[in-house]
Amino acid sequence: MPETMGSIIADAEDNGVRLDKFLATRLPEMSRSRLQALIAQGCVSSGGGHVTDAARRVKPEQEFTLTIPDAVPSYLLPQDIALEIVYEDKHLLVINKPAGLTVHPGAGNPDGTLVNALLQHCGESLSGVGGVARPGIVHRIDKDTSGLLVVAKNDAAHLHLSAQLAERSLKRVYAAVAWGKPKTAKGTITANIGRSLSNRQKMAVLKKGGKPAVTHYEVVASYQLPVASLLECTLETGRTHQIRVHLSYIGHPLVGDPAYGQSTESRLKANMYKTLPKKTSEALLAFHRQALHAREIAFIHPATGRQMRFEAKLPKDMRELIKRLSS
Fold first, then answer.
1. With respect to CATH, is domain 73-167 assigned 3.30.930.10?
2. What three-state secondary structure class fits 213?
3. pLDDT, tens digit, for every residue of 87-131?
4. CATH node for 173-294+320-326
5. Other C-beta atoms within 10 Å of 12: how many?
6. pTM for this model (two decimals)
7. Greatest CA span in the chain, whole angstroms?
8. Alpha carbons 223 and 325: distance in angstroms, whole number
9. I need a labelling partner for 282 at 20 to 30 A (CA). Which of 3, 207, 251, 272 fits?
């Protein structure tokens, strides 16, 4: 059933304010872009008539009614794909995504994604994000990265969590196995990231342009030569491929990530690696994804205000890789 919000009355200080801005201040659980769409659809009325101009200036004591229509069905198909749900309530879910599962449909991945799985799992519990019955993806992790991400079930939760992401208060910590060992046990990588000038399908550190990106890292353990190190990486920003690009930039790309470093086969041909035990080399060659796992996530619950924190242990493939590197 459509939801009606009536008696939204302008005060003296609202005189001359745009309608969309006025409504956004009174309805903070809704984004301004969503309100603009509702106004254009004729969902706002005043004085017995519909108001369809978001730029209209309001007057003191003017009363508005907003009718929110039922969320329209998503064009995406629900699909029965197994999910590891760490936490769920009527506002959000926390998912431990396996490596190999794409988050959102796109070119080359029209279905079989996390979003398709969530549409099946959530069913009618989705009240709609942006007027469509679909889950709200607050942040993404790469297809071949495993680990935790939070998903909103409604506009209010999506808006609140997205604001935390923008304010850098939504904490995300990753475990990464990188080639070699950084010179310092702890460090911060601050370097803008944007589309590579030589390959538009990749991201790169840019001297000019790009977006600010900050990654904090700490060496947890190093293995053998050191051939590789286990790092804890905390994101201050969330750029596409940020950890992969930043670690490559300082000379320590992720194991299993030829897009931002040498292939494992090429690297193991170097003289320094020829003394590695055969089983270690075999384990490295058999690892076919970037060794990256979203281990921890923390945020303020958008409805209760409670601090929420979740951890997910390393997946089996990364545990076995570390075990072999440690032997």
1. no
2. coil
3. 999 999 999 999 999 998 877 778 899 999 999 999 877 766 666
4. 3.30.2350.10
5. 8
6. 0.82
7. 83
8. 6
9. 251
